[in-house]
Write a structure and sequence with these properties.
Layout lengths: L9 E12 L2 E12 L3 E5 L6 H8 L9 E9 L2 E2 L7 H7 E4 L10 H11 L6 H11 L3 H4 L12 H14 L4 E5 L7 H14 L4 E5 L3 H7 L2 E7 L5 E8 H6 L4 H10 L2
The protein binds adenosine-5'-triphosphate (ATP).
The site of adenosine-5'-triphosphate has 13 residues, from helix 1.
Length: 261
C-alpha cells in the first residue's frame, strides 16, 4: 500500500462512516480528522460505538461476521477500504493494543521477534527487540530475562510488551482500546507516561472510560453519544482543553461535569 500525505497534519480521515452489525447501525455518519503524531481520545457512555469506530480504523471489524462499513476512511490519502487494499497491509501501518494484555505464550524475545519476522523483517533482530522494548519503557525490567515466558510478567509489564510488539512492526498509528483499564494505578501511570513519549513518533487513538486519563494524555477528544435508535454519533470533537473546560455542546458539558467535574 503506497501512501501519500494529503495534508501533513492529518494522519487519517473518516467521511460519513456508518458501521452495521447485521441490520443494526452501530454508528452513524462519523466524520473525524485524526491529527498526526498526537493523541486522540474517544470518550462517551457504554455502547456509543467508541470501540466500533476504533476497530474500523485498521479494518479489525471485518473479522466480526455480519459487519458492514459504509463511508470512507483515508489514511495518508489512501482509501483503506478500497477493493485493491489488503487489510493485513492496513494493520501493518495501523497497529492495535487491546484492553486485556494478550502476549503470546512465548518468550519475551519471541513476542517481539515473531510478529516482525512474519512481517518480513530481515534486519538485526536483537537490535529490534531491544529498541522496541526501550521505546515501550520495558527494557530495563526485562533485559536479563528475555528468554522467560511473557506470561510470567505482571499485567502492566505484559501490556507494555504488547505495545513493544506493536511498535516493532513500525506502524504509523497505534490504536489503544482501554489499554490501562485492567491495570493498577502505578501501571496505569506508566502506560500514560509511555503514551506521552510515543506520540513523538506515532499517532495514537485511545478509547478510555477514564475522564482524567483522557484529559491527561490526549490532545484531541471525540465525544460520542447514542441517538434514539441506539446508534452512536459524534457529539463534539476538538482540542481536549476545549472539550473539557469550554465545550460548545450542552450534552458534552453535562457528561463531562457529571463524570469529571
Ligand atoms: N460483535 C457485535 N455484534 C453485534 N453488536 C455489537 C457487536 N459489538 C458491538 N455491538 C453493538 O454496537 C454498539 C456499539 O458498541 P461498542 O462496543 O463499539 O461501544 P463502546 O462505546 O465501545 O462501548 P463500551 O464503552 O461499553 O466498550 C453497541 O450497541 C453494541 O451492543
Amino acid at each position: 500500500m503506497s501512501t501519500q500525505l494529503e495534508n501533513q497534519d492529518i494522519e487519517l480521515r473518516t467521511d460519513n462512516l456508518n458501521i452495521y452489525y447485521d441490520t443494526f447501525r452501530a454508528v452513524t455518519d462519523i466524520n473525524l480528522e485524526i491529527p498526526r503524531e498526537q493523541v486522540t481520545a474517544f470518550i462517551g457512555p457504554s455502547g456509543c460505538g467508541k470501540s466500533t469506530v476504533l476497530r474500523s480504523i485498521n479494518r479489525m471489524n471485518e473479522l466480526i461476521p455480519g459487519t458492514r462499513t459504509e463511508g470512507t476512511i483515508h489514511f495518508r490519502g489512501v482509501d483503506i477500504y478500497a477493493d485493491k487494499v489488503d487489510p493485513v497491509e492496513v494493520r501493518r501501518h495501523i497497529g492495535m493494543v487491546f484492553q486485556k494484555p494478550n502476549p503470546f505464550p512465548k518468550s519475551i524475545y519471541d513476542n517481539i521477534a515473531w510478529g516482525a519476522k512474519i512481517n518480513g523483517f530481515t534486519g538485526d533482530m536483537d537490535e529490534l527487540v531491544e529498541t522496541s522494548l526501550q521505546q515501550a519503557a520495558l527494557w530495563n525490567e526485562v533485559k536479563d530475562k528475555l528468554k522467560q515466558n511473557a506470561l510470567r510478567l505482571s499485567g502492566g509489564q505484559q501490556q507494555r510488551l504488547c505495545i513493544a510488539r506493536a511498535i516493532a512492526i513500525k506502524p504509523h498509528i497505534i490504536l489503544m482500546d482501554e489499554p490501562a483499564s485492567a491495570l493498577d494505578p502505578i501501571s496505569t501511570t506508566k502506560i500514560e507516561d509511555l503514551i506521552n513519549e510515543l506520540k513523538q513518533d506515532y499517532t495514537i487513538v485511545i478509547v478510555t472510560h477514564n475522564m482524567q486519563q483522557a484529559a491527561r494524555v490526549s490532545d484531541k477528544t471525540a465525544f460520542f453519544l447514542v441517538d434514539e435508535n441506539r446508534s452512536g454519533y459524534l457529539v463534539e470533537y476538538g482540542k481536549t482543553d476545549e472539550i473539557f473546560f469550554n465545550p460548545k455542546n450542552k450534552e458534552t458539558e453535562d457528561y463531562i461535569s457529571g463524570r469529571f467535574g
